[in-house]
């Protein structure tokens, strides 16, 4: 019996649709080697938050969608989650992560070889679902452009590893690609498939971008403030891998000399030095300032949602977004 | 100035179209980090044989294609090469290969991280080109199914690593997926876009499958018979990685006890032991028998091409296929 993240217990209608998405995804993934299939199924069933499909579903409700398009919208929502899962599997190769959502990763269990091809397989399922969701080549093109931007974002982030001159603008560009792009796509695609008016579709895209930016900023803050148990994934990994995110970038921009001696250790930062780095970030108010930056995008997203036409779905959208963007795990 | 493989010097019309494909691919790939972009461009320009786009172009000529669909067919042909390049980049991560077509691989030059995302980026470009080539969601679906089968083929091959009980049937299933599928797709898609009659489109698919099977069998034979210089890639790598291909499978099926003592060394096979293995394969006529098996598919493909309606493109198709399937590099 598949379950969704407890977050959805408060929203039973969305929860039911999200379960349909998960069942559809599992139906599409058949791998001869049943052990590999089992690991992938476990990832799908691991109660991720399913934010991208949820936003697609919620934005689709704003329009004049008819009951016979329900299946197509489920397929579209499922497709966004599958692309997300593919990037998670490939990210885990790169990060050499052993756990994800509390379970062993594909690469840790079956080797990076299997992880590369399994991620690719999910990308093919992503387009398979998309082609079931729409007859519109425009929407396929929009998706290929989004996927391209996600990967450009990942590659750009790599150009900045161990770069202590990285700026807030570099960071913003990178997260707009690697994270916000998929939220943008989900919200836009939902409004498009729900046949909203063009200006609502465009506003949905912009709301998605703000949510995505805020979401990644909060994620990057949590990496410095939470325990691995609470997040169900390792913490403080990014900095050792040379990925400098919002709190640290704010620190570097305001007092580089304070952080350089620690960052010069590169991947050899010890646990004790990581603790010193976190203390230093607090000393320089970096966590607090990062929260203020994230809050700007949260407030912008909420104000835009508030400006949407009145609709029962709008209240869910507002309360969900508010809950998400004050999350602690 | 981009050049194509010398193979195409004899076929100037196809050569011109293939150059258009390469230019289109390069145009689609923009990476902020210019060193990475340069490595990808070098791979694109490295004079691979461009067989998949060439077959797509040749089969498109059998139909009643008009001049204004030329650009679309170029985009479709380019898309098949881009998917092939994506799989090459991901294969090189798995094989830990340092060279490909005589140049350093993406993973060897920039690390496996960059190779994972660059391969993914090419998959997005694959669908981007495809969406430029067609308005037909059916064709998008066909491509997603093909890509899925290619990856199932790769994953199935992995289920058989170091499996000395692997049979000819397992092998055939695996190469039908990982190699023949893309040839099948190219020939089918060419005939489809060229608006051939349904029975010609179906025959094209079957010709593509036979060509793909024969091509992979010959590739696997060359791995045991050629020098790395001649092939511009390492040889005898597969067996150390536990990938047992046609010549060795024929050996295992006819006299397992002769091969087992060497294969038990797994990845620790020394160069001397590899030489002994090759000698053993010759002693058991495995290379010759593999050639006979491949020839069955070559003859089948050529006979089917011969049965196509008369057309100037048909002669090119026949002579090209004959040349390819008697290749030594």
From TrEMBL, chains A, B:
Protein name, per record: Heptaprenyl diphosphate synthase
Keywords: Magnesium, Metal-binding, Transferase
Family: Belongs to the FPP/GGPP synthase family.
Pfam family, one: polyprenyl_synt
Biological process terms in GO annotation: isoprenoid biosynthetic process
Any one GO molecular function term: prenyltransferase activity
Keyword Magnesium: yes
């Amino acid at each position: 019996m598949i379950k969704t993240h407890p977050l959805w217990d408060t929203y039973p209608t969305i929860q039911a649709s999200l379960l349909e998405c998960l069942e559809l995804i599992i139906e599409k993934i058949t791998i001869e080697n049943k052990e590999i299939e089992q690991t992938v199924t476990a990832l799908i069933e691991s109660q991720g938050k399913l934010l991208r499909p949820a936003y697609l579903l919620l934005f689709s409700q704003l329009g004049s969608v008819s009951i016979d398009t329900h299946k197509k919208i489920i397929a579209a929502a499922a497709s966004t989650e599958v692309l997300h899962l593919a990037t998670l599997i490939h990210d885990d190769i790169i990060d050499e992560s052993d756990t994800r959502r509390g379970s062993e990763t594909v690469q840790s269990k079956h080797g990076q070889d299997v992880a590369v091809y399994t991620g690719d397989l999910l990308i093919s399922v992503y387009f398979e679902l998309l082609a079931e969701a729409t007859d519109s080549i425009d929407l396929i093109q929009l998706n290929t452009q989004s996927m391209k931007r996600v990967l450009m974002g990942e590659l750009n982030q790599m150009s900045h590893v161990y770069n202590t001159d990285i700026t807030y603008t570099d960071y913003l560009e990178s997260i707009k690609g690697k994270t916000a792009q998929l939220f943008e796509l989900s919200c836009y695609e939902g409004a498009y498939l729900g046949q909203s008016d063009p200006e609502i579709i465009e506003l949905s895209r912009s709301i998605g971008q703000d949510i995505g930016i805020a979401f990644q900023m909060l994620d990057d803050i949590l990496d410095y403030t939470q325990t691995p148990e609470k997040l169900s994934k390792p913490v403080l990994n990014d900095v050792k891998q040379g990925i400098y995110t919002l709190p640290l970038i704010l620190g570097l921009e305001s007092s580089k000399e304070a952080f350089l001696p620690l960052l010069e250790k590169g991947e050899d930062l010890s646990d004790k030095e990581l603790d010193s780095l976190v203390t230093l970030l607090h000393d320089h108010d970096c966590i607090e300032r990062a929260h203020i930056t994230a809050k700007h995008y949260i407030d912008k997203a909420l104000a835009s949602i508030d400006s949407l036409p009145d609709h029962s779905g709008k209240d869910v959208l507002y309360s969900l977004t508010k809950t998400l963007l004050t999350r602690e795990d």
